[in-house]
Amino acid sequence: MTAKGYWIAHATVHDPETYDIYRQANAAPLAEFGGKFLVRGGEQKNPEGAWSPRTVIIEFPSYADALACYESEEYQSAKAIRAPISKANMVIVEGYLG
């Protein structure tokens, strides 16, 4: 059995209209690599530490798929739309097979 892979990101978006363009642009590479949104914004509470107002968690069939999607030319083109209008922290992590 292969462990799933995850993108976990938190961000502050400064231009929601341009962010919508980024979301449209990232749809194709996420679909190509089997990405599935588990968390996409929504209400959140931050009981410890510092965090940004937007949290996103995307599940992939494997850690390799998660890495390949991020490194793909298509996603990097989408990221170039997002980068100037947001501040983000992201980690790509392998799931637990316990």
Question: TL;DR?
Answer:
The protein has 98 residues and is α+β, with helices and mostly antiparallel strands. 37% of the residues lie in helices and 31% in strands.
Describe the fold and architecture:
The chain has 98 residues and is of the alpha+beta class. The chain has a single domain, classed as 2-Layer Sandwich (Alpha-Beta Plaits). Strands 2-3-1-4 form a 4-stranded antiparallel beta sheet. The radius of gyration is 14 Å and the shape is globular. The model has no long low-confidence stretch (mean pLDDT 96).
Largest sheet: 4 strands, antiparallel
Compute the number of structural domains: 1
Count of strand segments:
4
The number of helical elements comes to 3
Share of helix among residues?
25-40%
Cα end-to-end separation: 11 Å
- Could you name the CATH class? Alpha Beta
β-sheet strand percentage: 25-35%
- Poorly predicted residue ranges: none
Architecture, CATH level 2? 2-Layer Sandwich
List the SSEs and their pairings:
Blueprint: E1 5-13, H1 16-32, E2 36-40, E3 54-60, H2 63-71, H3 73-82, E4 86-94
Antiparallel strand pairs: 1-3, 1-4, 2-3
Helix pairs in contact: 1-3
Summary tags:
single chain, 98 residues, alpha+beta, Alpha-Beta Plaits, 31% strand
